[in-house]
Structure formats: structure tokens, C-alpha cells
Amino acid sequence: MNAPAETIEIFHGGCPQDCPDTCAMNYTVKDGKLIDVQGKPEHPMTRGGLCVKLKDFADHHYNSERLLYPLKRKGPKGSRQFVRITWDEALAEIKERWTGIIREYGAQAIMPYSYLGNQGIVQGLNVGDPFFNKLGATVCERTFCGSGSSTAWLMTMGPTGGLDPESFVHSQYMVIWGCNSVSTNLHHWHIIHETQKKGVKLVVIDTYKSLTAKQADWHIIPKPGTDGALAMALINTLIEQNLLDHDYIEKYTLGFEELKARAKDCTPEWAEAITGVAAADIRKLAKEMYDAKATAIRMGVALERHHGGGQTIRAVCCIPALTGAWRHVGGGLMQMPLWEFPLKFDRICRPDYIPQGTRVINNLRLGQALNGEMPLHPPLKSVMFYNANPVSQAPESNKIVEGLMREDLFVVAAEHFITDTAAYADIILPATMAAEMDDMILSWGHFYLTYNAKCIDAPGETASNAEIFRRLARTFGFDDPQFQRTDAEMIEDYIDWTAPQMAGITMETFKQDGYAHLKVGTPDDRCPHKEGNFPTPSGKVEFKSSAAAGGNFVATPFRQLYDAFQGGEPVDPLPGYVPSRERPETNPALALKYPLNIVTPKSHGFLNSQYANEAHKVKSQGDQYVLINPVDAAARDIHPGNLIRVFNDRGEFHGEARVTDDTLPGVVVATLGYWRSRTKGGGAVNVISSDQFVNLGHAPSLSDNLVQVEAA
Ligand SMILES: Nc1nc2c(c(=O)[nH]1)N[C@H]1C(S)=C(S)[C@@H](COP(=O)(O)OP(=O)(O)OC[C@H]3O[C@@H](n4cnc5c(=O)[nH]c(N)nc54)[C@H](O)[C@@H]3O)O[C@H]1N2
Ligand SMILES: Nc1nc2c(c(=O)[nH]1)N[C@H]1C(S)=C(S)[C@@H](COP(=O)(O)OP(=O)(O)OC[C@H]3O[C@@H](n4cnc5c(=O)[nH]c(N)nc54)[C@H](O)[C@@H]3O)O[C@H]1N2
Ligand code: SF4
Ligand SMILES: [Mo]
């Protein structure tokens, strides 16, 4: 028999998800179809395994609900009734509507809205910046994630990549602070867990018993938003008990005397009253961190998400400089390795195209920008969403929906699915998925750049984000070279190949291996701050920050606006404890109505809101649930499995009660990502969260919210 030979080919992939792990993958393609996606076995962090979210990534590409053609709304806003149109019709409609808006209101009446649905340097959150900057649209400041942490980090230590996650094999003590690694950073967790099995102590500081906290040798449970007091008390203890590397402090830090004065009254007893963590435990933690020398601290983004988040992170950043942990491979801090990546953000974003004086609207304030609450001249008349699903992910989501219902608002969305945001679009443009486009994926969780090769044809009439913006640019007559390059050419253009981090790494290397570790030292020898060398103005760790004098700047790690935001209110030159806005102790009047703090971390089974539309993923994650302590449940006659209402003045959502000691009295936990169009009761966690910024970096206050809970 002469059956035609099967053609099976393997291609390099890089996971495009907003995840610190940036796994290196192999795509298996058979006769033009993607049949399998696996983690690269030889990659030191991926080690052959993907996570539950991506385990059937090949099938995800063929999901029957995927958008394959441009659509135009035919029913009322949000009714999810669309008709198929051609690309030419879609582009013509966008041209006509935007041209009309520009004529009547000016280009700033249009705003792009994107985040990290895709993390590639080509297809990621910046992909539309050159086009919209050229158009003169309102600039959207994107501070969903990491800007508070990054601002605090930069103020103290400058843009250093910090500790290599792989160097944790050399750590003698490990602290995971506000990070649920088992769910959110699985490929770092493997390394931590192996080190732990060798006998190295793992401490997890988390407001509830997360999957990671359950694996800790010691779980420390501060009340939500009180970590700043804990960190200041650690500093107090290190100083009072002389657990200090005096030589390191002398040579490589700035402002020790001022820090000492600031921390003087921050005793463990003072912190115990605020955090609920026993004073003796705080002393013990300080002593153990000092004694171990090579102490590693992994900070998660959750630390930035209460009003004092930035100040908390600055305090934590002081600790390894006080103890001298930076002298040791495996000692120091890990938060945002991205700072080492030599990417040409000026080429990627083209901030030079932004007309002088263009206004900026922050992405967390979308609701009030759309519903009329924010005074805007001109008002927003059009928004284009790509790589983002704010109806699920952004705070005060009821206001967003209210705004999106406006008949006069022209909404464009580029998407894979009709998400809860795209449901309100007038025009939807179908976007490609990972295997259907070229890209290079950065990482904010390790030091590898990862190549992603297009290996199958784009299905239907889908187009990559970069291609979508090429088409829009052509439609608007923008003919700069910026808009003429292929996706592959953009990759070449966006990396600074001459940077020392890229020594010996070329496009050929990527095509051969699929990934490359930046030349920033190896996991076995990287010790970047053994002798100071901090990229701050003083070259030292700045306990007393010189950047603070410049005012409240916002260090967005994906930086279109990075330099644009110096100025504003002055910032405390020293770290300290800043209480939460919404805590029973700090806001007793509000707590009378809404006595419980809510924490809304990531779901184990979803990636933000992605995959939460796939029935089998929801099945393994479980329907929206709410962890509640038996004391709080009994007081409300709530029993395991009851459907409960979680609400405050901003809105309400429903979830199934899980009555458990995993959370403290006074704290409920409900994970993020569910689509409100598919939940019981039609809400999701962000209906209750506040759109107020925290005190640094315009970060969201997602762990700084009070609610009440009752049986539904
Ligand atoms: N499975 C999965 N993985 C993901 C994602 C996902 O949606 N799902 N999202 C990705 C993204 S975008 C990000 S930014 C990362 C984030 O990953 P993480 O940094 O792990 O962030 P979160 O899951 O928001 O919160 C982590 C932990 O912080 C705790 N926490 C909340 N508030 C406080 C507090 O005030 N103090 C302390 N000490 N702890 C607190 C929460 O209880 C939670 O267990 O994960 C990425 N990975
Ligand atoms: N309450 C609460 N809210 C939170 C958080 C929290 O911990 N608690 N976490 C916050 C954090 S850390 C983050 S990072 C944000 C994330 O917020 P988002 O980035 O908005 O999150 P996603 O749900 O990943 O939405 C991305 C969308 O992009 C689409 N997409 C994916 N790839 C592509 C592509 O190639 N092209 C196009 N056009 N679209 C694509 C996906 O289908 C998805 O709908 O959420 C924040 N919101
Ligand atoms: S989502 Fe994260 S852990 Fe899962 S495959 Fe992608 S990079 Fe790896
Ligand atoms: Mo994030």
C-alpha cells in the first residue's frame, strides 16, 4: 500500500502568556495541523512540562468558539449578536468612524486599551503604540501589574534584574512573599521545592493558606495589606539585634542612619498589633534570615496591591542589603528580571510619535473614563481593545460595562473569542494564536529570551496583532518604515543585539535552539551586587531614595511612558508602613457595613481570564468559590456549598462558600478570571474592587477592598 508519507515537523515555540515562566515549547505539526505542544525537555526551567492551563494548547487553537472572521455588531450593545463582514468592510468602517470622531472631537477622543494577553515583543501590549501615537490618540497608561513593585524597586536598587531564579539552588533560606508560586510560577516552584527537599527552609508569607503556603516549612499569615509593618519590624529587629553586615552597609548603601531612625519605633510588638504576626516570630524570622547568609526573597505582585504596597516593597528591598545577602550566590531578591532584557522600547512603542501635550488615561480608570464620571474634554468616543479583557480584569467593572453600553461609543476589539469585553464591540477583528505568528517572548520571571516560530497557517481570516496594525496604518495612510516590516523583521529590529547581554546570541542561535540565556552571569555564579554596583544614581542601595525627590514617578516595566512621569506629589524619601485604605482598623465606618477584607488572587486553572471560557478548564478549576473562615460563616449562617453574595457599594458577585481555616476570620478569598457572562449571578471579582491607585507607581488596590458576604 502506498499511503502518502506523513509529514511531521517540530518548531520552536515560546509561551505567549502573561506568566513569569515563559516556557520554551515544541510545536508538533502534522500535515499543516498543530497536533501537540510540549515543553522543551532540555530547557533548564521548562524541563519538558507545561502547566494545566497550556496542557492542551494545540486544541485551544482549534476551539470551535474561536473568532475566524471580522464581525460587525447587529443587535443592541452587549447582546453578542454579530454578522460576518470582510476585512475591507471592517477597515472602511473603522476609517469612517475614527475620521468622523477626529474631525469633530480631535484624535484624543480615541483611546487604545491593551495589556498582556500576549507577551511577545512584537505581538504584545505595545503592538498598537506606534499606530495610536501617530494617530494622536489618548495615551493609555498601563499599570495593571508590576508598576508599583517596579517603582519601589527602582527607587531603592535601580533597574537591576536581581537574583536569578535558578540560583535558588544555592540559597540557604528562602522566603516567598505574596506569591503563589505553585499556581503562578510553577517552573520556579520546582527549583524552590528541590532546594527545600535538600533541607533548606522555605518560608511563605501569605494572607491565606495558598497552595504554596501549604508546602511551606513555615507559613506566616499577616492580615492583608499589613506587610509594610512586618517588613519595618524586620528592619527594626535586624538593627536592634545587630544582625547586620556593617561592611556592606558602609560601602554599598545610602541612608542607613535615616533608615535606623525611621525603623526605631517599628518594634515587633508594634507590628504584632497591626499584622497579627507574633512578635517572637518576627524576631525569629529576622534572625534566621541573617544567620543563613544566602537568603533569597521572591516577591510576588500581590505585595503592591494595597495602599502602602510601594512603601512595603521598598522596605523589603532594604533587607538583603542590611544582612549582606547580596554577597552570596543564591542570596538577594527576585522580582523583575525583565530589567536585564536589552529591548529597544523606543522602537517598539515610538513615544516620539506622541504629540506634545497628549493626555494620559490610566487603564485602571477605564470605567470612570467611559461612564462620564471623569471630566474629559474631549470625551472618549472610541476605544480599541487588544490583548486585554478589562470587563473581567479591571476594577469597578460595573462602571466599565455601563460605559461600554453607550450608544455613541464606537468600540473595536481584536480578539480570539467574544470575551465579556468584546461582547460590547461594534467591530471585532480576529487575531491569530501563538503557533500562527512569529514572535520573541520576553520574561519577567527568568533570564531567557524565547523564540516563537510561526508554524501553521492562520485560520480563517485571522491576522497577527502586528498585521492588524499594519492594515490600520495603511488604511490611515501612515507609510513610515515602522509600519512596513514583517513580524519577523520586527523581532530583529526590537532587540539590541550589540548589548553585552546578547554577546554571542544571534537570530541564528534562536532558530537553532529556540531560546537563549542572557549573558548576565550563570545561575551558578551570578552575584550581581556582591560589590554594590546598583544602577541607582549613587550606585548603592538607596534606603533613602534620591529618586524620591523627583516626585511620584511610575516605572512601567513595559515602558511607553517610563520617563514621562517624573513629577507630581513628592514621595517619602524612606520606606515605611502605610496603612491600607480599606481595613477595619483604618476605615471603621466602612467596616461597619463591609467588615471583611477580600483577596482576589489568580486562579490555578486560568491565566487571568483566558481559558475560563473552556468548559473543561472551568470544571477542573471549579466554579467561582469563596473561601470563608468558619467563624465568619457561622455568624452569617453560611454552610459549605451555599451560594453566597459578596458585595459592597461597587457591586456584587456570587460564589460557592468553602468554609475553611485556610483563611483567617475577617478575610475572604475569591480567585480571578471567571467570565461574568458565565457565572451564577452574573458578576465576577472585579465588580467589588476599587479603581484607586496605591501610593506608588499607580498600582491597583486589588487587595485593599472591604466587602460583606451573605447567603444568596
Ligand atoms: N495559574 C495562573 N498563573 C498566573 C496567572 C493566572 O491568572 N493564573 N497570572 C499571571 C500574572 S499576570 C501574574 S501578575 C502573576 C501573579 O502571581 P502572584 O505574584 O503569585 O500573584 P497573586 O496570585 O495575585 O497573589 C499571590 C499571593 O499573594 C497573596 N496576597 C494577596 N494580598 C496579600 C497581602 O496583602 N500580603 C501578602 N503577604 N500576601 C497577599 C494571595 O493570597 C496569593 O496567594 O501570575 C501569573 N501566573
Ligand atoms: N481582582 C483582580 N484583578 C486583577 C488581578 C488580580 O490579581 N485580582 N490581576 C491583574 C493582573 S496582574 C493583570 S496582568 C491583569 C491582566 O489583564 P488582561 O491582560 O486584560 O488579562 P487577560 O484575561 O489575559 O486578557 C487578555 C485578553 O487578550 C486576548 N488575547 C490573547 N492573545 C492575544 C493576541 O495575540 N491578540 C489579541 N488581539 N488578543 C489576544 C485574550 O483572549 C484575552 O481576552 O489583570 C489584573 N486584574
Ligand atoms: S502559562 Fe506559564 S507555566 Fe503555563 S506554559 Fe505558559 S509560561 Fe509555562
Ligand atoms: Mo499580572
Would you mind describing this structure in some detail?
InterPro entries: Asp_de-COase-like_dom_sf, MoPterin_dinucl-bd_dom, Mopterin_OxRdtase, Mopterin_OxRdtase_4Fe-4S_dom, Prok_Mopterin_Oxidored, YoaE_C. Keywords: Iron, Iron-sulfur, Metal-binding. With 712 residues, this protein is α/β, with parallel strands linked by helices. The protein has 3 domains: 71-145 and 341-496, Rossmann fold (3-Layer(aba) Sandwich), CATH 3.40.50.740; 148-335 and 523-566, Dimethylsulfoxide Reductase, domain 2 (3-Layer(aba) Sandwich), CATH 3.40.228; 588-711, Barwin-like endoglucanases (Beta Barrel), CATH 2.40.40. The chain is 27% helix and 17% strand. The protein has a 6-stranded mixed beta sheet with strand order 5-4-17-16-15-6, with helices on one face. A 6-stranded mixed beta sheet has the order 23-25-24-27-22-26. Strands 10-9-8-12-13 form a 5-stranded parallel beta sheet, sandwiched between helices. α7 (227-240) runs antiparallel to α10 (268-275) and α7 runs parallel beside α12 (309-323). The longest helix has 19 residues, at 87-105. The N and C termini lie far apart (65 Å). The mean pLDDT is 96. It binds ligand MGD (2 copies), iron/sulfur cluster and molybdenum atom (MO).
Architecture blueprint of SSEs:
Elements: E1 8-14, E2 24-30, E3 33-39, H1 57-61, E4 71-73, E5 82-84, H2 87-105, E6 110-114, H3 129-135, E7 139-141, H4 147-157, E8 173-177, H5 181-184, H6 186-197, E9 201-205, E10 218-220, H7 227-240, H8 246-252, E11 253-254, H9 256-263, H10 268-275, H11 279-292, E12 295-299, H12 309-323, E13 332-334, H13 345-349, E14 360-362, H14 366-370, E15 382-386, H15 390-393, H16 397-404, E16 410-415, E17 427-430, E18 439-441, E19 448-452, H17 465-475, H18 487-494, H19 507-513, E20 515-517, E21 541-542, H20 588-593, E22 596-599, H21 615-621, E23 625-628, H22 630-635, E24 643-648, E25 651-659, E26 667-669, E27 705-711
Parallel strand pairs: 6-15, 7-14, 8-9, 8-12, 9-10, 11-21, 12-13, 15-16, 16-17, 22-26, 23-25
Antiparallel strand pairs: 1-2, 2-3, 4-5, 4-17, 18-19, 19-20, 22-27, 24-25, 24-27
Helix pairs in contact: 4-12, 7-10, 7-11, 7-12, 10-11
Iron/sulfur cluster is lined by residues 15, 17, 19, 21-23, 50-51, 53-54, 186-187, 607.
